[in-house]
Amino acid sequence: MSTSADTTAPPLSPLPHDTEGLKQSIRDAMVRFVGKDPKQATQRDWLDATSFAVRERMIERRLLTRRQFDAEDVKRVYYLSMEYLIGRMLEANLRNTGILDETREALAQLGQDYDEIVAWEDDAALGNGGLGRLAACILESLATQGYPGFGYGIRYEYGMFRQQFEPYRQVEHPDNWLRYGNPWEFPRAERKYPIRFYGEVVEHHRNDGSVHYSWEDGEQILAMAYDYPTAGYGRRNVNNLRLWGAKATRDFDLRYFNEGDYIRAVADKSQSESISMVLYPNDATAIGKELRLKQEYFFVAASLHDILDRHTELGYTLDDLPHQVAIQLNDTHPAIAVAELMRLLMDRHGLHWARAWELCRQVFAYTNHTLMPEALETWPVDLMTRVLPRHMQIIYRINHEFLEMVRRRFPGDEERLKRLSLIDEEGGRNVRMAHLAVVGSHQINGVAALHTELLKQTLFADFYQLWPERFVNVTNGVTPRLWMIQANPELTEFLGEKIGHDWQYDLERLRALEPWVADPELQQKFQQVKRKNKERLATLVRERTGIRIRTDVLFDVQIKRIHEYKRQLLKLLHVIELYNRIRDGENVPPRVVIFGGKAAPGYQRAKDIIQVINEVADVINHDPQVGDRLKCVFIPNYEVSAATVIIPAADLSEQISTAGFEASGTGNMKLALNGALTVGTLDGANIEIRDAVGEDNIFIFGMTESEVVAHRARGEVPEAMLAGRPALSRTVEMIEQGYFTCDDNATHAELGHYLRHQDPFFVLADYPAYREACERADALYAQPECWNTAALTNIARMGYFSIDRTVRDYAEKIWDATPEPVAPKRNGG
Ligand code: 475
């Protein structure tokens, strides 16, 4: 396409990547950008100056990457996601640009401690959990493998709330992560698009009898681009994450300013900018709020406008769209994109319905992340009609054409039409966003094998019958760069000594470790690494909770959002039973149990669970009879940066969701990759992890998905599970009788009642099998050689769960995209 003569010459003279050069850049940045005399600089100033020095080097590569993509006629992949759970950026960028060691040394020579400096950075927590972290891993992998892949999202001023316990119950505090500015973002004042809300649709009748529609009036808000360069590891590729921030338009200002109400004008302005103010902290529940719908449309409309502008700027026509553009919808949050692209193609570019629809379907693909019914987004037709009137019209037309097709294939099957319709007519009329995403996409994927099967058999069974070829599985993965190289530098070094570094790009090569998994010398080194990692975690625990934990015992870790289906209560029941056995004088193997995770602010049950865990922990941790044989800690404010400390220290990974509910899980992968053994149900990707690591190297327990369905059908009262189980009965009684609380009997009584009489996720039914699995784990842990063999075997066999494999699966099965590496991969420099 637009082949410019000079695509390889750097736009600037390249900056040095050695220690001396970096030192110079950091010192210069301190004066020129931070505006401080190095003698007066604080640690935060050093963080900023270092960030500027790295960003200078990344932006060079960003420009080169872009030139190459523009010159080579590549297909671009756009990832649309409401969430990116990125974490800290400085260390990631240093690592991926290959200048971490040099920078560490440069800072040392400047009298600064690297580890202290990087810890000043706030996490970019623009996501809730699994879905948002997956998006961040995918962007990193796109860049690392050299795919022309770009993220679009929202620049929330406030990310995921900060969690505190006051003293036991969760309290949320705002996460004002941009408070001190952000050296990683490039505001693009020229990339501003007006986004309309409300208003009305005007019908225009042309002379040839055709009808044309336009969307007019209402309210306009500007979406302004903020670019975050995303560096690939060991390559020169630097891709881009474009986040949209809301700005009031000048028109908007003028209206009020002209009326002379200056104060009102300024106040309203900030209201219109509230669209990108805050991330909704709900994971796996749909929020029916108008502001949320506006957020979704806001970032989708800006992104599609941007994508089409780039497409035409590069000289392509609309007919080229399917060859040049793939758009992945990360869950249904951006599903309104289907209607918006139709609107743009017809109302702005004059395409006919049929042609526009053909193009749309070839461009979009949709990833589903959850089967939980309460997470499925629907929007009241009334609300959609008011906020996005033209889109509502288009959705009706899509639905009409779609249902006509279904009618032809299944004549007289009215029930089927109701089930498939984009509009749910039961209990008020609602638009089913998942149905819009399915009909508007050429491929629909689940995120683990079981999940995809369940999508086909349950949630999307009728769609699967219509279009079986559209459903594919893409099992999730995790980036080894963050979750191994950065989180576990000692294990990385140890692997390097034994099997080299190729695994960093091709994680399957960890298999080369297998011949040595039983090697005593290797095992000893592995154990030393674990121990060091546990010490690092013990420090974090002491700093955040004041609790001291020993590092010579089994670390049993459950870190994830708090949800009934994830069953933190199952772990808690086990902890209480261990406590009782210790107090009964039994010789129980020592362990440290670690919880981490946030509850959605309005999810009272999840908050009750947090509170009770904290109260139980408090009793156990202060019981002199227990001493250091059992400790239980709930680490507050679990976030990406904390995860990088917790995961490498874990021995046991708790993946104990009720089978059929966890779409995939990705924490399960991070922990196993770091040599933790999984105690888990046959749910989500646990099944594939078991297949990969082998049955002897994982502790599987509990009902399978079909057993859960059968159990539910039997409709037994949960309480019945207590019969003949004195230890479990005692545990439940202790909770309901308020043994662990001095002032809130009500919450404990309620939780006990819930277990006895509701227990919707079958905690009691699975408990005996769970306890038995934990005992298997204890027995193996008592034989260090066997444990270490199993742990090292896990590491050696986790290669499949690399995000690079996931991204290649998307590229091959869905996007038809190929990598375009800017330079051969290399280590460092
Ligand atoms: C699954 N979040 C994990 C992970 O695929 C899976 C829902 C509604 C609104 C906001 N956020 C959500 C999710 O549904 C979500 O995070 N799902 C998770 O996606 C990545 O590994 O099993 O629960």
Could you explain how this protein is built, in words?
The protein has about 850 residues and is α/β, with parallel strands linked by helices. The chain has a domain at about 535-795: Glycogen Phosphorylase B (Rossmann fold). The protein contains 32 helices and 24 strands. It has a nine-stranded mixed β-sheet, with helices on both faces. A six-stranded parallel β-sheet has the order 21-20-19-22-23-24, with helices on both faces. Strands 14-16-15 form a three-stranded antiparallel β-sheet. Bound molecules: N-[oxo(pyridin-2-ylamino)acetyl]-beta-D-glucopyranosylamine (475). N-[oxo(pyridin-2-ylamino)acetyl]-beta-D-glucopyranosylamine binds near residues 283, 375 and 663. N-[oxo(pyridin-2-ylamino)acetyl]-beta-D-glucopyranosylamine binds next to helix 6.
